[in-house]
Amino acid sequence: MPEKRVAVASKVGLHARPAALVAKAAAAQPVAVQIAKAGGDPVAAGSVLNLMTLAAGYGDEVIISAEGDGAEQAVEAVAQLVATDLDA
């Protein structure tokens, strides 16, 4: 299962606008994408509510993973968003 570790780049963490953008991108992928805080349980990345319940703040490391055909591209697409300051 492909996975990637990235630091949350948005100053407000994965809340509000950044969470909505990440959830939209994750939901658009051909496979289910999961995200977890380091040491925590994974949640579906396509849900804004799930992303907000992670309480992932600025600089926190998260692990993005997916399984199936297209999983590597899906993980990379979501990871790039998380690693971008979406508040800018």
UniProtKB/TrEMBL annotation:
Role of this protein: General (non sugar-specific) component of the phosphoenolpyruvate-dependent sugar phosphotransferase system (sugar PTS). This major carbohydrate active-transport system catalyzes the phosphorylation of incoming sugar substrates concomitantly with their translocation across the cell membrane. The phosphoryl group from phosphoenolpyruvate (PEP) is transferred to the phosphoryl carrier protein HPr by enzyme I. Phospho-HPr then transfers it to the PTS EIIA domain.
Subcellular localization(s) per the UniProt record: Cytoplasm
Residues in HPr domain copies: 1-88
Stretches of the chain forming a coiled coil according to its record: none
Superkingdom, taxonomy of origin: Bacteria
High-level lineage: Bacteria, Bacillati, Actinomycetota, Actinomycetes, Pseudonocardiales
InterPro entries on file: HPr, HPr-like, HPr-like_sf, PTS_HPr_His_P_site
Main location: cytoplasm
Record CDD domains: PTS-HPr_like (cd00367)
Name of the protein in its database record: Phosphocarrier protein HPr
